[in-house]
Amino acid sequence: MSQPDGEIDGRRFRDVLGHFPTSVVAITTEGAGQRPEGMVVGSFTSVSLDPPLVSFLADRSSGTLPKILGAGRFCANVLAADQELLSRKLAARGTDRFDGVAWKPSAAGNPVLDGVVAWVDCGIEQVVEIGDHFLVVGRVRDLRVESAKTPLLFFRGGYGDYFSTTSLLLDQLIGW
């Protein structure tokens, strides 16, 4: 049901868009004192092949975004299906998000988390204020696929993973 004057109820908006699966990506950077900083987003996407650009959206109230912007660079870590607890830890507020988290620095110094599907290391190209979020566009400096694990997804308010029917069929034919 439509709202008067085209207004959309926020809860209904979230419920409907929750039926669209999103990626779960940890955006990391090196903060003050070489301290790792990070946050989780469900809005990471490619933007351009030439030049190679990617983007993510961050809530205007994010306490981590200013640290990422201050560093001028970030690494997008595509979390694997077995990293739900890591996602929850990096999304928590007011805790040491990297306590006990294994990572190594990228060539630019951004944390690359152990066990991820892939990572994309970027310099910040542009930041655009849109509604209650900031769109952060990054120029890709380096990237790599780390594992053949399936990615962690967020769908209908919960975590899950992705198995294509083609992959399942091939696995059955091969006998895995």
TrEMBL record:
<dbReference type="InterPro" id="IPR002563">
    <property type="entry name" value="Flavin_Rdtase-like_dom"/>
</dbReference>
<dbReference type="InterPro" id="IPR050268">
    <property type="entry name" value="NADH-dep_flavin_reductase"/>
</dbReference>
<feature type="domain" description="Flavin reductase like">
    <location>
        <begin position="17"/>
        <end position="161"/>
    </location>
</feature>
<keyword id="KW-0560">Oxidoreductase</keyword>
<comment type="similarity">
    <text>Belongs to the non-flavoprotein flavin reductase family.</text>
</comment>
<dbReference type="Pfam" id="PF01613">
    <property type="entry name" value="Flavin_Reduct"/>
</dbReference>
<dbReference type="InterPro" id="IPR012349">
    <property type="entry name" value="Split_barrel_FMN-bd"/>
</dbReference>
<protein>
    <submittedName>
        <fullName>Flavin reductase family protein</fullName>
    </submittedName>
</protein>
